[in-house]
Amino acid sequence: MWTRSELKENAKGKLKGFYWQAFLVSLILVITGGSHNRLDLGSSGSSTGTANGGGSEFALEIALIAVVGVLVFLALRIFLGYILEVGGRKYFIQLSRGESEISYLLKFFDKRYYKNIITALLFRGIYIFLWSLLLIIPGIIKMYEYRFVPYIMAEKPDLDHNRALNLSREMTAGQKMDIFILDLSFLGWFFLGALFFGIGILFVQPYYDAVNAELYQRVKARA
User: Fold this and answer.
1) Which residues are listed as membrane-spanning (predicted)?
2) In a domain? residue 76
3) 217: containing domain
4) The whole model's pTM is what?
């Protein structure tokens, strides 16, 4: 069994001497994860083109640009972000074992693993999305259920995607609420980080990622 204080204490110890390296890995994961991606088009067309009847054409152009932008973002997220995500998890897994090597971030840009990793993470995303369409709560439950898929693929990149999803489901059985509470314990840190125009959150992220790697090690040993 694990405790939040134990995970956090271990993570702090592993980050000593490697914080800035871990910060770089976490920063790349945040950027390629695209969690804060927005397209601000609000007021740019509100008073343009109405005099010559071109307002609808302008709106259509904006809509097309938005659609293309979303498609490009999704392609980058799937074909680049997924691989970097698994590489980043591999980095933090190894850091939790006392080994710090930033090259793990790029380890899975390898034709032997590329397709397999993309398939596993794509199915994870599809399942979470479909459950979220029903209600928010089922989507959140599935998000925690499949939380360790990137970690599993980081250690076994040739694993079948169904097996990876099932393993994550088994590992989180009976632990999802505890993991949720662990996440809640970081709210104070992220709130403080958000006070500095959100930039401070980036400095908390390596700590959060290191704690999650410690969590994976404990849950895997239990399973």
Assistant:
1) 18-38, 58-80, 121-141, 186-208
2) no
3) 4-43+82-222
4) 0.86
